[in-house]
């Protein structure tokens, strides 16, 4: 965070880029053992979401460039089909593991070619199976051993809504993704001054990442962290959805216990080489997720929006700005390029029914006037 301080990207984007970077460096060499159930690896799916100009791509590239400097690091192309991604993952075999990090400047480009098949693959491979098999279209069989796919991507809510398979929202794939939303870049100079200490700090980070790539073995919680996590886990499993009323986020919260541990492993690796998770890592993992969860529903703002959603929002903006009742024809003139007459009437009727706006009498006029509910008649 000190290194990225001069950069304008929102702080939370840099935090999750750091997590993705360390997860990529750790690959499949470290894990948390849940006896007789599964091994949890540190790979993550982190997607930075925001409107154009929110500097999400700039934040992602900081970590991407660092990982590309590490020897033996494998990454996949920006826009790719499922078959090509499977091939890249298979060919990343090194030291007995197929570990690959995918960077995508536009997350939805991954679905442009393969659509739902890509969503199904990303869902399936997330668990880092010891062996994953697939039969290609030419009937050839592909087997990936010790898979570990780490993903960081960027997108906009509207773009995601148009391209991401709707059946995956709130279900298999998005329950495995940390949807990191932010809108406004930090207040920084457009061209930060060159500071030799920044270059030195960057080299120190890259050196530390090289050490992180050498870590190997099982992560363990110390006694205090284990007791705390176990208490939280048992309560969470009984009611995993208590923190949200958004049905699209409920599957994410059902998997939060694994996400916490994945992040905690990365935080521990940033500080020490002992493969121990302490209360410091657990607390920070919960804090990072709480920060993302506070605005996570905004990532879905483009989903489920009817064709009249944008015009209705514009009507609210216009009436709020004027503060006065506005006639039907004048209001329509503002939206004539956004909506057809029939849709305009539907907008007004819907907004009146839900008490968002109201009709108001205006003497001497022959047309209805509308005003934001709760404002004076002027």
Labels describing this entry:
378 residues, four-stranded mixed beta sheet, 17% strand, single chain, alpha/beta
Would you mind describing this structure in some detail?
By secondary structure, the chain is an alpha/beta fold. The chain has helices at 11-26, 56-68, 82-91, 116-125, 157-163, 196-212, 223-238, 250-254, 256-271, 279-293, 309-322, 328-335, 341-353; strands spanning 30-34, 38-40, 45-49, 75-76, 93-94, 97-104, 131-135, 141-145, 147-155, 177-181, 217-221, 276-277, 326-327, 357-360, 369-372. It is elongated and about 85 Å long.
Biggest beta sheet attributes = 6 strands, mixed
Report the span from N to C terminus: 51 Å
Number of helices: 13
Radius of gyration: 25 Å
SSE sequence, one letter per element: HEEEHEHEEHEEEHEHEHHHEHHEHHEE
Structural class estimated from helices and strands: alpha/beta
Question: Secondary structure elements and their pairing?
Answer:
Layout: H1 11-26, E1 30-34, E2 38-40, E3 45-49, H2 56-68, E4 75-76, H3 82-91, E5 93-94, E6 97-104, H4 116-125, E7 131-135, E8 141-145, E9 147-155, H5 157-163, E10 177-181, H6 196-212, E11 217-221, H7 223-238, H8 250-254, H9 256-271, E12 276-277, H10 279-293, H11 309-322, E13 326-327, H12 328-335, H13 341-353, E14 357-360, E15 369-372
Parallel strand pairs: 1-11, 3-9, 3-10, 4-6, 6-9, 11-12
Antiparallel strand pairs: 1-2, 5-6, 7-8, 13-15, 14-15
Short overview:
This protein is of the alpha/beta class and 378 residues long. Helix content is 42%, strand content 17%. Strands 3, 4, 5, 6, 9 and 10 form a six-stranded mixed β-sheet that branches.
